[in-house]
Design a protein that fits this description.
By secondary structure, the chain is mainly alpha-helical. The protein has one domain (4-112). The protein has 4 helices and 2 strands. Strands 1-2 form a two-stranded parallel ribbon. The longest helix is centred in the middle third of the chain and has 20 residues, at 29-48.
Length: 113
């Protein structure tokens, strides 16, 4: 059975995950980037399943992509990274897994950058 580690977050409703998803466990920049990429995959899946649609889907995908690019910079800008992640979070409130994942990732920015 898959687990979704959300570091103290509460999941409401049914959660069906095909694999183990651990977001918010990153201990360094490389792991953080991997988590962002996992989150992007979750977002892509939510868009494919029409959990997020229209402009919200497009804008959320853009913000997550920009967050990935920012995190990959030699010296990522913490405020820009948080801004993109918070913007994405505001757009995906209908997809609990992604919202919880974004919350976990946002909390890691302050620790890792």
């Amino acid at each position: 059975m898959a687990t979704f580690n959300q570091q103290g977050q509460t999941v409401v409703g049914t959660q069906n995950n095909a694999e183990t998803i651990t977001i918010g466990q990153a201990q360094n920049k490389s792991e953080f980037i991997v988590e962002l990429q996992q989150l992007k995959q979750l977002l892509d899946k939510a868009v494919d399943e029409k959990l997020i649609t229209g402009e919200k889907a497009i804008d959320a995908e853009m913000h997550v992509k920009k967050a990935v690019l920012q995190a990959q910079e030699n010296k990522p800008d913490k405020n820009t990274l948080i801004s993109h992640l918070k913007s994405a979070k505001e757009l995906v409130t209908s997809a609990d897994k992604i919202t919880a994942g974004l919350s976990s990732i946002i909390s890691k920015v302050g620790v890792l950058f």
